[in-house]
Amino acid sequence: MKKWWLWLVLGWWAFSGGALAGKITLLGAGATFPYPLYSKWFHVYYQKTGIKVNYQSIGSGGGIRQILARTVDFGASDAPMTDEELAKAPAEILHLPMAIGAVVISYNLPGVPSGLKLTPQVLADIFLGKIRKWNDPRIAQLNPNLKLPKLPIVVVHRSDGSGTTFNFTYYLSLVSPEWKKRVGYGKAVRWPTGMGGKGNEGVTGYLKQLPGTIGYIELAYAHQNRLPVAALQNKAGNFVLPTLKSLSAAAKTHIPPDTRVLIVNTDAADGYPLSAMTWILVYKEQAYGGRSYERAKALADLLWWCVHEAQEYNEALFYARLPENVVAIVEKLIRSMTYKGKPLRP
Predict the structure, then answer these.
(1) Pick from 2, 6, 230, 316: CA 20 to 30 A from residue 282's CA?
(2) Residue 284 lies in a domain
(3) What is the rounded CA–CA span in Å between residue 169 and residue 60?
(4) Same domain as 148, residue 88
(5) Which residues pair with 25 in a beta bridge?
(6) pLDDT for 13
(7) What is the mean pLDDT of the chain?
(8) E strands of 132-192, at which residues?
(9) Where does residue 85 fall: left (phi above 0), alpha (psi -120 to 50 degrees), or beta otherwise?
(10) Residues 6+ away with beta carbon under 8 Å from 123
């Protein structure tokens, strides 16, 4: 009789703690910028743990809206939430950096490979609609060894709320007074020229199909679709291609305890000027909306794995690993996550 009771208890424990835990599906939504990386991470994590992660690549603006509405376990954004957005949250939200990526300037120019040189001012004037032909003297002067076609420049930008747009327009506001005055920066702006594509995927689609186009996308999308990328002049005056080395160089800067900082327009002499961090957004206190302890613990364990073991997958997908100083900050933030006031990862 005692053995029967013991097996019953063990069976119940296996179902509620072990088997049930394996059936947890965590929900996330947001940035398209890290989608290639997150797809790999979450597939590997499911194989290792049985925990599924359903991530919807809907743009940073959508990720912020959904974490504010508490319809997902985590949001994802390439732009830190503003003070105004955080003030709308029902509780404290943490920003957890996951990887370092690059916003690249890609183009479709027959016969022109990667390495087209662009200065910050020329880039801004292209997106302002002031430079309209690919053989414009200002572009030709920077690239005397390239045969530039007599094609009209077709600007492609994002049509959705986007952290990629936030980083790109913030950079243009830093380097171009006219851009700052006329357009400014944000996850969505009033574009002076061009056509919009939804997500990094939408902009990539236009770049692949239409000769003469220029747009901004995440580095992984350019590599996956074999699109050329520009070498941008950085603060030090060097023309730098987006590489793992130049991304890492840009990330070696002071990161505040809440991690809400942009790393564009780096001071590093060998740094790529459009480098960007991408964040996962979670509530510090996880006991809300009827959430179980097991679900909260599964989320904390996933995030811990993402900034440790998962980093080994970054470079193959053209994202730089988090620097050690950033990992240390994220560890502290994850350890601050609680369930009914008790740490999920003491």
Answers:
(1) 316
(2) yes
(3) 14
(4) no
(5) 52
(6) 35
(7) 93
(8) 154-158
(9) alpha
(10) 105, 172, 175, 230, 232
**Of 258, 275, 292, which residue is a domain's last?**
275
**Domain total for the chain?**
2
Which residues make Cβ contacts (< 8 Å) with residue 175, sequence separation at least 6? 120, 121, 123, 124, 265
Write out the residue range of the structural domain in which residue 196 sits: 102-275
Round to whole Å and give the CA distance between 128 and 185: 13
Is the predicted pLDDT of residue 246 greater than 60, yes or no? yes
What is the C-alpha to C-alpha distance for residues 257 and 108, in angstroms, rounded to an integer? 41
- By CB neighbour count within 10 A (0-12 exposed, 13-18 middle, 19+ buried), where does 12 fall? exposed
Look at the block and give the residue holding tokens 């073991």.
309
> pLDDT-based confidence at 242, cuts 50/70/90?
very high
Domain co-membership, 150 together with 201: yes
pTM for the whole structure: 0.87
- Summarised one tens digit per residue, pLDDT across range 254-284 is 899 999 999 999 999 999 999 999 999 999 9
Q: Are residues 282 and 172 in the same domain?
A: no
Rounded distance, CA 301 to CA 299, Å? 5
Question: Is residue 212 a part of any domain in this protein?
Answer: yes
CA 19 to CA 41: how far, in whole Å?
22
**Whether residues 130 and 222 fall in one domain:** yes
Contacts of 32 (CB under 8 A, 6+ apart): 57, 58, 59, 162, 164, 199, 200, 201, 218
| CATH number, residue 334 | 3.40.190.10
Residue 319 has pLDDT above 50, yes or no: yes
Tens digits of residue pLDDT in 156-182: 999 998 999 999 999 999 999 999 999
The two tokens of residue 46 are 């499911």
Q: Of 220, 248, 275, which residue is a domain's last?
A: 275
66 and 120 inside one domain:
no
Average pLDDT, integer, range 190-194: 97
Model confidence at 22, pLDDT cuts 50, 70, 90, reads: low
Q: In whole angstroms, what is the distance from residue 70 CA to residue 73 CA?
A: 7
Q: Could you give the CA distance from residue 346 to residue 247 in angstroms, rounded to a whole number?
A: 32
Residue 189 lies in a domain: yes
